[in-house]
Write a structure and sequence with these properties.
The protein is α+β, with helices and mostly antiparallel strands. Among the domains are: about 270-350 and about 365-410, no CATH class; about 420-630, no CATH class. It is built from 13 helices and 36 strands. Strands 23, 24, 25, 26, 27, 28, 29, 30, 33 and 34 form a ten-stranded antiparallel sheet that branches. A hairpin with a 5-residue loop joins strand 20 (about 450-455) and strand 21 (about 465-470). Helix 3 (about 115-125) packs parallel to helix 4 (about 160-170), helix 7 packs across helix 8 (about 250-255) and helix 9 (about 270-290) packs parallel to helix 13.
Length: about 650
């Protein structure tokens, strides 16, 4: 009997100790699923249950969910982790294979910083630890608001997150790790704002895939070895998330891996990097006044620097890779202050970015981005939340002033660029058997982007651009095109149709192409979308690797589903007046994803009259174009692709 009592007392002491002594790690998961990300966040929760809590590794989660929406939610009639499903918020401990309910918080506002602070306090009261990993899941946008609570119609701003974590760190000490399972959060502004409260940060410069990071085996490894170093765990977590996509047996997930990037940032030097970026801006701003040739270098660097997220509208994130800015400048550093800032940026990034992974389509990502827009509308986020008034941008930070000056420089340019065919008139009728070559000349100093295009006339003298293909700019001021009678087309399992490629990256490992249009999900929900394709130059076709839904200023990536349908968006241009618009034929037969999905591949064009030419845009967004009129004859030696459908 005494032996039994001793064993019982020992076991009871162990239970009490688990509840009262500090674990090695506590992961606090702030899971805002009260929106269109409910389904993937519930999958993340299931992955966390593969590991579960232990004595030295605790997982405490606040999970707020949305009322059932068949277009974006999950079946609330089924159980989750052994719990009846819910639509409010529950505080739970994630155990192996199940969830343990700690409290039902009812309907809460995840876009209220008070909710975040309450969760941190309650979570660390339940599971105090030597090291804390605060994991935040939802929509992100760098400095712009994220963590959208659709029920309350609110969101968290960077200022609010900064203040909340400062308050929490004063109570509980610095967070060992902050994991942003949210888009576009690896920015210098975010890193600097949180550096007083957080030691390390896991975040992505790019859109995070809709399924998010992978938690299963990576958390299980920490559960088995909770004393591993923070850097070792973070590197394993990042690599595991990349491998989840890139090494998957699922071809759709493999494709997503080509656009995946994530890094581990050590934040002790983040404010110094932010200040170095400010010095960079001071030098660039001075260059506008001191060196007339510097203006072109600066404008070109902004356009050519690697950009993250959707980049085809005035509400795009406007986040560019920080290390790519001095790389784009090259040896054209116009003044000493620029050079000093550029060197500091390079050196500090080496100290801050400890580890990063990146897919083949995103090879120019270096771990940290910075906000650098070319429209003044970019400066304000949701509800007039202004970049220039961010807490982190106060004091000595002058980057916002440089942005203001940069946009002012662009606004001075209202004259359209020039484009002409060398030795020829603007319009010429020419049969295609001769495979004509045409050389177009333009001013390289006043040209930001250039496309070759294929168009068809409309009833009102406009030209519908059924095909567009960005061309690399080599600084020569000349673009030579050869008419081959072929063009890239968008395919589904039933056929193909020409579609305009609005943007492209020509990387060392392959070409990335972007198409914009309307995506229809199951149930009829429609959204603007940007499709990303990638090919390695060696073989066709180019594979679909990402779908990004554009919902105002919010972006969301999703996995392809067979029931999805897509309609491309076509630019419409009047070359006499310069007026532009877009066209989507919603009454025609759409592209259907089916089991094979969509892809890009060259096709032989059908016989009909075409407008074949060049369209250019300067740095201020002014545009111009010119074309030839020609017909591709049915009697050509090239075999036509009879599956090519008319613009639908």
């Amino acid at each position: 009997m005494r032996r039994f009592l001793l064993v019982f007392v020992a076991l009871w002491a162990s239970v009490v100790a688990w509840g009262q002594t500090k674990a090695e790690w506590t992961m606090l998961a702030y899971m805002d699923a009260d929106n269109d990300l409910e389904y993937p966040l519930m999958l993340d929760l299931i992955e966390m249950m593969e590991a579960g809590s232990s004595r030295d590794f605790r997982i405490i989660a606040l999970v707020d969910r949305i009322e059932l929406n068949p277009l974006m939610g999950v079946d609330h009639a089924s159980k989750l982790g052994g719990l009846d499903n819910w639509t409010g918020a529950k505080l739970v401990e994630v155990e192996k294979g199940k969830l343990k309910e700690l409290a039902d918080w009812g309907e809460v506002d995840m876009g209220d910083p008070a909710t975040l602070n309450r969760f941190i306090d309650e979570g660390l009261k339940i599971a105090p630890a030597k090291r804390v990993n605060l994991q935040m899941s939802d929509h992100g946008g760098g400095w712009m608001p994220g963590w959208v609570d659709m029920t309350e119609e609110t969101h968290l701003t960077l200022d609010e997150i900064q203040t909340s974590l400062e308050t929490a760190s004063k109570k509980h000490g610095k967070f060992e790790l902050l994991t942003f399972d949210a888009c576009l959060m690896a920015t210098v502004e975010v890193a600097a704002a949180l550096s007083d409260s957080v030691k390390y940060m896991i975040a992505s410069e790019e859109l995070v895939p809709g399924l998010g990071f992978y938690y299963g085996s990576t958390l299980a490894a920490l559960r088995e070895n909770p004393r591993m170093s923070t850097e070792m765990f973070a590197k394993q977590f990042i690599q595991g998330s990349y491998d989840f996509y890139a090494k998957s047996d699922d071809e759709d997930l493999q494709g997503i891996g080509t656009t995946f990037t994530c890094g581990l940032l050590k934040l002790d030097r983040a404010r110094a990097l932010h200040l170095a970026t400010s010095h960079l801006g001071i030098g660039l701003q001075a260059s506008f006044d001191l060196n007339v040739n510097a203006r072109q270098t600066i404008l070109r660097a902004q356009r050519d620097a690697f950009t993250f997220g959707e980049d085809f509208s005035e509400t795009a994130p406007a986040l560019v890779d920080l290390a790519d800015i001095p790389d784009r400048m090259g040896q054209n550093a116009p003044v000493v202050t620029y050079g000093l800032g550029a060197n500091d940026v390079r050196n500090l990034m080496k100290q801050i970015v400890l580890f990063a992974v990146k897919g083949d389509a995103i090879e120019r990502a270096d771990g940290i981005s910075v906000f650098w827009p070319r429209y003044d509308t970019y400066l304000q986020g949701l509800e007039d939340y202004d970049y220039r008034t961010l807490r982190v941008n106060a004091g000595e930070v002058k980057w916002p002033q440089f942005i203001t000056r940069f946009i002012e420089e662009l606004a001075k340019d209202t004259k359209p660029p020039t484009i002409k065919e060398e030795g020829k008139g603007k319009k010429r009728n020419l049969a295609a058997q001769a495979m004509p070559k045409v050389t177009w000349s333009y001013d390289p100093k006043d040209t930001a982007e250039i496309w070759s295009f294929l168009g068809v006339p409309t009833d009102n003298e406009d030209v519908l651009l059924i095909g567009m293909l960005p061309a690399p700019l080599d600084g020569s001021g000349k673009l030579e095109l050869t008419w081959t009678g072929t063009w890239p087309a968008l395919f589904d399992s039933e056929g193909s149709q020409l579609a305009p490629i609005l943007g492209a990256e020509y990387g060392e490992k392959g070409m990335t192409a972007y198409l914009r249009g309307q995506l229809e999900l199951a149930g009829g929900q429609k959204s603007e979308a940007v499709l990303t394709f990638f090919g390695d130059y060696k073989q066709e076709p180019m594979e679909l690797v990402r779908i990004a839904l554009v919902e105002g200023s919010q972006l969301r990536t999703i996995v392809p589903e067979p029931t999805m349908i897509f309609r491309p968006e076509y630019p419409v241009i009047n070359f006499e007046t310069g007026a532009t618009s877009t066209y989507i034929n919603e009454e025609s037969e759409p592209f259907r994803f089916g089991e094979k999905g969509l892809w890009l591949q060259q096709v032989v064009l059908p016989a009909q009259p075409y407008r074949w030419g060049v369209y250019i845009e300067d740095f201020a967004g002014n545009s111009a174009g010119a074309y030839r009129e020609l017909t591709f004859p049915a009697g050509s030696a090239l075999q036509q692709d009879n599956r090519l459908r008319a613009v639908r």
